[in-house]
Amino acid sequence: MATERPGVGSPREVPILRVENLAISYETRYGEVTAVRDVSFEIGRGETLGIVGESGCGKSTVAFGIVNFLGRNGRIVSGRILFQGQDLVGRSERELRRLRGDRIAMVYQDPMQALNPSLRIGDQMAEVLIVHRRMKKDEAEERCIRMLERVYMPDPANVMRRYPHQLSGGQQQRVVIAMALLNDPALLIMDEPSTALDVTVEAAVLDLINDLQEEFDTAIMYISHNLGVIARVSDKVAVMYAGEVVERAAAEEIFLHPSHPYTLGLMRCVPRLGMEKASSYLHPIRGRVPPPNRLPPGCVFEPRCDFARPECAERRPPLKRLTDGHWVRCFFADEVASKGQEALAARWRKEATVHEPQREPTETILTVQDARVYYSVPARRLFSREKPVVKAVDGVSFHVPKQRTLGIVGESGCGKSTLVRAIIGLEKLSGGGMEFMGFDISVPVSKRDLDLIRNIQMVFQNPDATLNPSFTVGFQIARPLRRFRAVPKDRVKDEVIRLLNLMKLDASYYDRLPRQLSGGEKQRVAIARAIAARPELVLCDEPVSALDVSVQAAVLNLLLEVQRELGTTMLFIAHDLSVVRFFCDDIAVMYLGQIVEIGPAEAIYAPPYHPYTEALLSAVPIPDPTAEQRQIRLSGSVPSALNPPSGCRFHTRCPRREWLPDGGRICEVEPPPWQADTEEHRILCHIPLEQLRRMEAVVSEEVRDAG
Amino acid sequence: METEKKSRLRKFWESISIVLRSPTAAVGLAIVLFWVFVAIFAPLLAPHDPLAQDASAINQGPSPTYPLGTDNLGRDILSRLIYGSRVILILAPVSVLASVIVGTVLGLVGGYFGGIVDEIVMRILDAVMAFPTILLYLIIIAAIGPSPLNVVLAITFVGAPGIARLVRGLTLDIRTRDYIRAAEARGESALYIMFVEILPNARGPLIIDALLRVGYAIFAIGTLGFLGLGLPPPTPDWGGMISEARKYIWTNPLGVLWPALAIASLVVGLNLFADGLREETMRYQ
Amino acid sequence: MLVRDYMTRHPLMADPDMSVVEARRFMGENNLRHLPVVGEGKRLLGLVTRQTLLVDPGRLGSLNVWEIADYLSRLTLKDVMVPADEVITVGPDVPVEEAARTMVEHRVGCLPVVDENIVIGIITEVDLLAHLAEMMAAGVPAVRVTVRMPDVRGELAKLVTAVSAQGWGILALGGAPAPRKPGYWDAVVKIRGIAQKEVVTALSQVEGHEIVDVREA
């Protein structure tokens, strides 16, 4: 039979969801504030619409509007929400429940929001069927097991008997997705369902969503801030900014021909997997998303737009049609589209002047030798003598040359944060040694002398917790200056303002309180505080992962500048491999408390790979639907550090074990040896280097060198 | 400097307007302010000397000379109530302040250090809290004798464990924040971290709790007075007044009513204020 | 080629309390001819078509103008629908041709697809026609030839062998009893990338077979 026959086109059918000119407002202390304006889109059967935008752009508000979860103070001001041909706006609660019934399901970022912690998985899943469909218990349970199998849950019958907290985050999210699909909904709304998950788990969940959509013909509205994720799952994309849809098109179209300055900006500010530290500078979007009660009078993006002309500030641009199905809210969309092409292409060109890599060997500033951090956790059983021990960091060795940046990557629970905390002295070392500028730093911070303390500082992950909410910015930056007597007392204020300026913040920030700052600004203040006393080593624990992408770029650029100007050595923890590649000279990949691969950044991102590195790289969502990326998915989740697997710790999930004779028996028994690819690049694996060298690159060369 | 003052003033008005936005808090504040006003201007407001006895008018009902009547010694109830507000409005806040100080220190120490220190502090406080409050008051006052200072001591002793628990809970939460990590990484002392980094961030719930406790303290002072363990006579003490008037409840029932109403209104006012404030600050988050 | 592959999933459905007036508008707006009526859990309660929504004049005869308006506004789908036990349905794992037979047998244009009384889709005559068109590769340029052969085992194999012998691929193949000619069978073959003449030459050599129709389609 010939296979490549086009199917017979079905007649134009009613979309599952059609939103027309939707406007939603919230009642606040400052009066009624419009959070979402003039939003229109439609999702057909079996189609995925990706909604992308930074936080505060109204993505979730639209979703909540559709399911009527706006809360007491929110309401739909105007517009229509047609779900399967029937308008949801202006109906009573009872009518809505009946209309929507079990035909719309929602999946949130935090799976625990949807799971009842006190009920077994099986009971809460079966309840959906028993209540809605009056199915018999055993029959319902059988269906649930089948559904769990369909979301690729290992050992579903066993999972049914467990409580939610006994599952990992990725498994919980699978359960929630399975539960959402039990009723065979026509529309599935997913609000950042994979954001809280590790990259390898995220990749598996995204694959799952694609599979299920084909099978169930469900319309999916997928909300995410991550362009890479959106590129992987969506058929159509709507870009939201400040409560408006500013661009809407088919996924490929929008990624190849972005025509709104904001879309273009979003694409230019994320580092791609191929970007090197030496070659690139990120293009942040200046300013920040305006709060909904203080929108600019003209185009909402005008204050941050590089293409803005005077008329942009006066008049709000209408949504205009560019090509079939491509809509843009910009007066100069054509110009943006053509300039955008150049800009995106230029992204790959080497801007060699920006940063000269320091390849010549310099003196080592930090040496970590066989470091171990063990915790004892409370015994499971009463009266049991031995206390279980978590080996959070187990035998880690590396050294960092002066003025270089070492990136540490790995999934949550791999011990990267613990390692950094041990270096700064907040965690007690259980074994091994650490040396910094010739001093022994294997003692906690309270036993170190002031000068040593001054020379190691840290930038934390969560911008909302990094500054003390009770004190002004000025006070907090001044504190290390005073404490370490970095400058004379009468010059502290000048120095703080100089630091603020260095962080591209003006002197008016001196008297502000943290709650008056945006996330990016808080993080800049935190960096200023960390570098105030001119430390030699700055430890960065995921400094940008909680920030919006446009802000991320600015903060990363700042950190690079600081390093260039002050010659600071940095340790940079992140889970985002594109960011690490962009930011670091050397990279260490950690898995379950051990480093499995370490070497210069370029070497890590090209074969030979450690099998774990290979899987990590193949899981990174790339914001380009045409990019070719090999799919290597890890099975299962990270084993508990309480009871790490014997031999090679990665053997339980390793997809490359079968390369070894006897199915990799040796991996289960013997700890793997270090193999040196080059002098600096080492891999901890049983598989011979020659074989590892034969691996293909995960991301095709073509994409990496495009432009 | 001038502008700073102005912005301070504006901030003050902003916080006032936040309070007034909640009707509960506004009503509560009005009642409390009424009593504060009464206490401050007592000498001007009181028609008689609260200690002066009028042998010709004993246990009388309301009359033009004595608007609320007189007590068993012929003293003017209204004047005694007015002067009594002074006593109570000094004793209650002072004793709460003392218990806040003691409780905060204990809570911070237990919460921040954790481990064995926390265990010891908390077990001792649990032991104190295990006693019925009234019994504790009785034991303490019986042991050290009734006097204004001892009333304050008793209320401090009884109130501190609750505050310590609250502060400990807040500390346990706050000490996990990154800014505490940052301070530790700077090698700050434990004292600095507890009092400069942690305490200011616990102030919101602490203030509200303290306000509620002022209400309880007024209650406690009233109770002690009623049991004869409060302030020694002839101090005009609302609890004492109820206790005295109770004996003559059949001849002059109103004599019990007025001081009871005074206590109730002040306590209710404080509670309303604290509740409203809590609601508003919660919404603020 | 089962119903589940050709049905329309997530069809538009209505609630039994929907008024007839609204249902008429709803069906008109969305160009529907059939509307399953479902209760909680998408349980099938009935089916309405445009005909069922036409109100029986006999029922209105005794009413005056005002009463008619009132009667109509109160009329809901549960009063007029064909109740579930009279609705012809089909399961998702039934072959499409069985669904077609059911529709022909009962003279209905649509079958709700139910799985244990839960509506999971709908299959209409249009879906089946789309299936037929697809099966016969309608719209794909190729040589379409109809061959009449005796209704005997092995005859079709002869045709297929003849085509394969030339090294051609069969794009589509279908067959049915020859109309008005008992004992014979008409097979339709579509062959791509070849001239009509060559096909005729090659197939006319098959013994006992007659080319009744050949065209570039």
User: What's the architecture of the largest domain in chain C in CATH terms?
Assistant: Roll
Overall pLDDT of chain B: 83
Task: Tell me the total number of β-strands of chain B.
Answer: 0
Largest sheet of chain B: none
Please explain how this structure is put together.
The complex is a heterotrimer of chains A (707), B (285) and C (217). Chain A has 707 residues and is α/β, with parallel strands linked by helices. Chain A folds into five domains: 13-103 and 183-241, P-loop containing nucleotide triphosphate hydrolases (Rossmann fold); 116-177, no CATH class; 263-346, no CATH class; 364-379 and 386-588, P-loop containing nucleotide triphosphate hydrolases (Rossmann fold), CATH 3.40.50.300; 607-673 and 688-704, no CATH class. In chain A, 32% of the residues lie in helices and 21% in strands. Chain A has 25 helices and 24 strands. In chain A, strand 19, helix 19 (549-566) and strand 20 (569-574) form a beta-alpha-beta unit. In chain A, helix 3 crosses helix 4 (137-150), helix 10 runs parallel beside helix 12 (333-346) and helix 16 (473-483) runs parallel beside helix 18 (519-531). Chain A is globular, with a radius of gyration of 27 Å. Residues 1-11, 348-356 and 701-707 of chain A have low confidence and may be disordered. Chain B is globular, with a radius of gyration of 22 Å. Chain B is 77% helix and 0% strand. Chain B has eleven helices and no strands. In chain B, helix 4 packs parallel to helix 7 (148-174) and helix 6 crosses helix 7 (148-174). Chain B has one domain (46-271): Orthogonal Bundle (MetI-like fold). The model of chain B has no long low-confidence stretch (mean pLDDT 83). Chain B has 285 residues and is mainly alpha-helical. Chain C has 217 residues and is α+β, with helices and mostly antiparallel strands. Chain C folds into two domains: 3-132, CBS-domain, CATH 3.10.580; 138-216, Alpha-Beta Plaits, CATH 3.30.70. Chain C is 36% helix and 27% strand. Chain C is built from ten helices and ten strands. Chain C has helices at 3-6, 20-29, 50-53, 57-60, 65-74, 77-80, 96-106, 125-135, 155-165, 196-204, and strands at 8-9, 34-38, 44-49, 82-83, 110-115, 118-124, 143-150, 170-177, 184-191, 210-216. Chain C is elongated, with a radius of gyration of 24 Å. The model of chain C has no long low-confidence stretch (mean pLDDT 86). Chains in contact: A-B, A-C.
